[in-house]
């Protein structure tokens, strides 16, 4: 198994059919609870264990999910209220090295994700086909449609949860 991509890489070229959106929204809605379950009862030492060689610790991974999902939610709101806004990317690796990502209890980001996803899901469920077709411009990826971004972040939550559950299995932390 590829420890970097335990559920496979995301395919940006794959079309997102309208009838798959409810399932994707459901996956996004379930992400905070899945992540919470993945870290349940881990010790401080376990939280500070990298999920793979040269990878982030479990703690950094949880905080990364919060950072990334906050950025995605804001990008959605920009795309819904502006014409093809150019979004600002961020250096995920450097953000993961900041003091809060290295030291704060994971519960801080888990609570943030609970609230963020409640708002995000309500907004996503309200979107029309035309709104799902709206785009933002990512400097490295080009134009990104909102339905593609939904699929990406449904994948992203499962991807990082699998990092943690895979580590738990490999280390016998069940």
Can you tell me about this structure?
- The protein has 174 residues and is mainly α.
- The chain has a single domain, classed as Four Helix Bundle (Hemerythrin (Met), subunit A) (Up-down Bundle), CATH 1.20.120.
- The protein is 62% helix and 5% strand.
- It contains 8 helices and 2 strands, in the order αααααααββα.
- It has a two-stranded antiparallel ribbon with strand order 1-2.
- The mean pLDDT is 97.
What key phrases describe this protein's structure?
8 helices; 2 strands; single chain; 174 residues; two-stranded antiparallel sheet; Four Helix Bundle (Hemerythrin (Met), subunit A)
Strand arrangement within the widest β-sheet reads 1-2
Total discrete domains:
1
What's the CATH class label? Mainly Alpha
Form type: globular
Work out the strand percent.
under 5%
Whole-number average pLDDT? 97
Given helix and strand content, the structural type is mainly alpha
> Major beta sheet, specifics?
2 strands, antiparallel
Q: Find the CATH superfamily.
A: dinb family like domain
Give the C-alpha Rg. Answer: 16 Å
H/I helix tally: 8
* Helix amount: 55-70%
Distance between the termini: 19 Å
């Amino acid at each position: 198994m590829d420890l970097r991509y335990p559920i496979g890489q995301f395919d940006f070229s794959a079309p997102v059919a309208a009838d798959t959106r409810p399932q994707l929204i459901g996956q996004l809605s379930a992400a905070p609870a899945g992540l919470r379950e993945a870290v349940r009862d881990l010790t401080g030492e376990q939280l500070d264990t990298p999920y793979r060689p040269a990878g982030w610790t479990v703690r950094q991974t949880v905080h990364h999910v919060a950072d990334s999902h906050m950025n995605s939610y804001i990008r959605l709101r920009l795309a819904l209220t502006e014409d093809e806004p150019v979004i600002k990317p961020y250096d995920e690796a450097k953000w993961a090295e900041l003091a809060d990502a290295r030291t704060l209890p994971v519960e801080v980001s888990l609570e943030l994700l609970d609230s963020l996803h409640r708002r995000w899901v309500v907004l996503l469920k309200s979107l029309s086909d035309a709104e799902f077709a709206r785009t933002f411009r990512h400097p490295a990826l080009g134009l990104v449609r909102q339905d593609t971004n939904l699929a990406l972040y449904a994948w992203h939550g499962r991807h990082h949860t699998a990092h943690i559950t895979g580590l738990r299995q490999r280390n016998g932390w069940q």
